[in-house]
Amino acid sequence: MLEILSMNFMQNALLSGILVSVACGIIGSLVVINKMGFIAGGIAHGAYGGIGIAFFLGFSPLLGASAFSLLLAIIIAYITLKDKNKIDSVIGAIWAFGMAFGIVLIDLTPGYNVDLMSYLFGSILTVSDMDILFMLGLDIFFIAITTLLYRQFVAISFDMEYAKLKGIRTNFLYYVMVCMMALCVVATIRVVGLILVIALLSIAPLIAAGFTKRLGSMMVLASIISAIFCILGLMLSYYYDLTSGASIILIASICFFVFAFLKRV
C-alpha cells in the first residue's frame, strides 16, 4: 500500500475515487430511492455528445460533458414530468443520439484521435489536479444543497403526491435532483466511464439500504462503501495490471451479490 501511495498518479487516483464516492453516495441514494437509474443511464451515455462537442471545438471535455449533460437533464425532467409514460422511449432516444452525435464529432475532429475506451470505461489513473478540484467543488455543492433541502428531498422521495399537497415545490426539486445527477455522472465518468457509471451510482446505495432506512444515514454509509470499492478496485488493477474502472465495478458487483445472498439466507 505504501508503494502505491508513493506515486503521484496513484495519489490522484485514490483521492478522486474517494471524492467521487461521496458524490455517488449522496446522489446515488436519491437515484435508488426515486427509481431514477434509467434516467441516470440516459444522461451518462448522452453525455458523450458533450465530449464530442468539446473535442471538435477545442475546449475542455469536462466542461462540454457538464453543459451537455445539464441540457439533457432539463429536457428529460421536463418531458418525464409532463408524461411519465414516455420516459423509456425518450431516454432511449436521448441515449442513442448523445452517443452517436459524440462519436461522429470526434471522427470529424481534424488531427486528433481521442481514445474512446478511456471515456467508455474510465481513466482514473490519468485524473488531473483540475479534475480533482472539479470533484471537490461538486462534493461541497452536493453536501450544501442536500443539507439545505434535506427535508424536501425526503418528502418527494417517499411520497411526492403528499409533498405536493403540503405545498412543497415538487417540480422544482425534481429538476434540481436530475441536474445534480447529471453533474455527478460527469464526475463519475472520469473514474469508471459512462458504460459503468450506473453501477457505481446504484450498488453502494443498494447495499446501504439494507442497513438503514433513513436517507441521511444511507447517504453516509453508501459513500463509505463506495470509497472502499474504489480503493480495493485500484489495488486490484495495480497489482494485476487490469483496467481500473472495470476492477472497481467488479469488486462492487461481487460484494453486492454476496450481500444479496447473505441477506436472502
Automatic annotation (TrEMBL):
Lineage: superkingdom: Bacteria
Membrane-spanning residues: 12-33, 53-78, 90-112, 132-151, 172-189, 195-212, 219-240, 246-262
Keyword Membrane: yes
Topology in the lipid bilayer: Multi-pass membrane protein
Keywords noted in UniProt: Membrane, Transmembrane, Transmembrane helix, Transport
One Pfam assignment: ABC-3
Compartments in which it is found: Cell membrane; Membrane
Family indicated by similarity: Belongs to the ABC-3 integral membrane protein family.
Name under which the protein is recorded: Manganese transport system membrane protein MntB
